[in-house]
Amino acid sequence: MASGFRLIFATSLLLALLDLCRGSTIGICYGRNADDLPTPDKAAQLVQLHNIKYVRIYDSNIQVLKAFGNTGVELMIGVPNSDLLAISQYQSNADTWLKNSILPYYPATKITYITVGAEVTESPSNFSAQVVPAMRNVLTALKKVGLSKKIKVSTTHSLGVLSRSFPPSAGAFNSSHASFLKPLLEFLAENQSPFMVDIYPYYAYRDSPSNVTLDYALFESSSDVIDPNTGLLYTNMLDAQIDAIYYALMALNFKTIKIMVTETGWPSKGSPKETAATPDNAQTYNTNLIRHVINNTGTPAKPGERLDIYIFSLFNENRKPGLDSERNWGLFYPDQTSVYNLDFTGKGSADVITQANVTSSNVTTWCIASSKASELDLQNALDWACGPGNVDCTAIQPSQPCFEPDNTVAHASFAFNNYYQQNGATDVACSFGGTGIKVDKNPKRSSRLSGWQGVFDVYVSGWKASFSFNCPSNLLSGSSYA
Ligand SMILES: *[C@@H]1O[C@H](CO)[C@@H](O)[C@H](O)[C@H]1NC(C)=O
Ligand SMILES: *[C@@H]1O[C@H](CO)[C@@H](O)[C@H](O)[C@H]1NC(C)=O
Ligand SMILES: *[C@@H]1O[C@H](CO)[C@@H](O)[C@H](O)[C@H]1NC(C)=O
Ligand SMILES: *[C@@H]1O[C@H](CO)[C@@H](O)[C@H](O)[C@H]1NC(C)=O
Ligand SMILES: *[C@@H]1O[C@H](CO)[C@@H](O)[C@H](O)[C@H]1NC(C)=O
Ligand SMILES: *[C@@H]1O[C@H](CO)[C@@H](O)[C@H](O)[C@H]1NC(C)=O
Which residues are catalytic? Predict the structure, then answer.
């Protein structure tokens, strides 16, 4: 008995440590309120291509669950507000939902969170009384099949649950929602589930530009905002809003509940009055957000605390009602091309400097396929480059001049490199979900082809990559070097 206990204890300690070491994560929201989106299979490919590991959806659509099967991507799925009543009323409804909508696809599809209702305090219909009973029934259903430790149950909130968010240390929940929040927070604490909140510095800026500077909202501020009660310095609005939630939880003595940001982002386009909704600002916000999160800085009140954040949204959604900005939160257009470049690794900044050096020192840089990448990842990336990426891939078709050597690494290298050269040779243009590698060593010149040939290996940060071009110069972008 005693050794069994020790083993279990050691295992859970190890798991706790692994959890601590996991670091902050960036995911993406995959909203589908549109009539022109690619199929879920295509969307899942796009997500993998950009190396995104966490995805939030708003329901439990079967096609979407299937599309993410065996991809390793972790899904947060949702019970829509309209289904809360049924699930809150009868345990059997929750059991049936789990049995029919989730279990057939689990664990091939890695589901880790279920959001039961979304932003109910914003809804004109008052769903709030149904949320906690529905959460309890979903949790009970999970317990019955032994999944309550693997799949966490929570619900999402808007920042409107607070009556006060400034200064952060004065953060407080709106007492009108007390009868909803009290049992909810007890449920979260008891089950180690996170408090989920959608946070939009964009709205804070849009609605009171005289009180919030654009730089502060975009993580670009050169001066700090000081919380007079704590003396903590805030360099950006997102941190301040997260800490306002943290202090609101502390004020009610819920000290163990973690906060998770289930939506944030910036629109790339808006109505004429929404002057801050531009591709530049959206790129700045999301780029800085990713860097900030990946850096594991935490927030001023909780330095070093892991942050899990989902960017809203994968695609522009043409059927969302409201102002123009509502339909323009996407990182991608429905045809899967980027609205603006975004480096999901958050590590682009250092490399940009390297690249400037490389250019000025007159060495051509190339983007080629990593031979470490899996065949499937390479094929997906190749399909993307030759499709939405707009690379002309005629030359790598059978009997065309760049077809040999006939393998995925060689074909992907051709497509990656042409995409990279056509898109400004920036680091982001050589990402391909981690399967692209930028190199500054040239392949062999071939007199026979008056182009490039040879398959030889280079080592980049200890990884083996392969040059596999066998191609006339005029078909290979970036080969102007003589
Ligand atoms: C919503 O319903 C609950 C319980 O029925 C009630 O306590 C609460 O005041 C209502 N909230 C609003 C905003 O109407
Ligand atoms: C608190 O919530 C109630 C009900 O939704 C709302 O009418 C009121 O304006 C809110 N108070 C604050 C300070 O936000
Ligand atoms: C700006 O802040 C002041 C003081 O906190 C407040 O009274 C005012 O309503 C705010 N203005 C806007 C547009 O939110
Ligand atoms: C990253 O972390 C370091 C040290 O914790 C900090 O000085 C730096 O400002 C952080 N960078 C970003 C982008 O948050
Ligand atoms: C890169 O450029 C900077 C500034 O021009 C220079 O100081 C540095 O030595 C260069 N590095 C290399 C490797 O050429
Ligand atoms: C770049 O290299 C080529 C060939 O080595 C040389 O002819 C050319 O003058 C160089 N250009 C610059 C700007 O150094």
Answer: 119, 263
